[in-house]
Design brief:
InterPro entries: Mog1/PsbP_a/b/a-sand, PsbP_C. By secondary structure, the chain is an alpha+beta fold. 33% of the residues lie in helices and 30% in strands.
């Protein structure tokens, strides 16, 4: 059972604004480490316009695993999370936005966990949806539901919406012109004088 919890706007120690805008936690006893979170990071001017700009889905997944391992290294860089790549995929959503999803495992306090992360860039912002579950529950009862949840994640791009509206308006104008031209042709044909054949001579 997941419930939304408050997310501090800033790190109390550093004062840095938290990129996390939503956090859900499993409130059942002993399951607090199982979470679903959404973060937003503004991309600097001249930065990536799509996740495709950082490589393929597989390359991006490998980078996430490497970064996870680097963060979790123990004293002197020994030990750590033991992160291991599982799979990666991509899909195209509304507005032709490209989504990358990576699945990998890591170790936290000797407990193996599975992480599902989906990345997408829209309107100059990198959105990251992450679901984390202990491996036993993930491979047993939760994996399918969490994969479905991540696959349903969609960002509505304002830029794409404006472009789509403009395209629809242009198509409507073109259709109206074609309809008007067709109606004019029909009217002209209706107004044209009838051509009479030669009169028959009486015998």
């Amino acid at each position: 059972m997941y419930q939304e919890v408050n997310v501090p706007l800033k790190d109390p120690a550093s004062g840095v604004v938290s990129p996390t805008v939503m956090l859900l936690k499993d409130v059942r006893t002993g399951q607090a480490g199982n979470t679903i979170s959404l973060s937003k990071q503004i991309i600097p001017e001249g930065g990536i316009a799509s996740v495709a700009d950082i490589g393929s889905a597989e390359e991006t997944g490998a980078r996430l695993v490497a970064a996870e391992s680097a963060r979790k290294k123990g004293v002197g860089g020994i030990g750590g999370a033991g992160a291991s790549f599982r799979s990666a995929s991509q899909r195209t959503g509304p507005g032709k936005l490209l989504y990358y999803t990576a699945e990998y495992t890591k170790s936290v306090l000797s407990v193996s966990r599975v992480v599902l992360t989906t990345l997408v860039v829209a309107d100059g912002v990198l959105f990251t949806l992450t679901a984390e579950e202990d491996q036993g529950r993930f491979d047993g009862e939760m994996g399918g539901a969490l994969r479905d949840a991540v696959a349903s994640f969609v960002v509505i791009s304002q830029t794409a919406a404006v472009e789509a509206a403009a395209a629809e308006a242009a198509a409507a104008r073109t259709a109206a012109k074609q309809s008007s031209a067709g109606a004019g042709g029909i009217a002209a044909a209706a107004d044209a004088p009838a051509v009479k054949g030669p009169k028959k001579r009486r015998q």
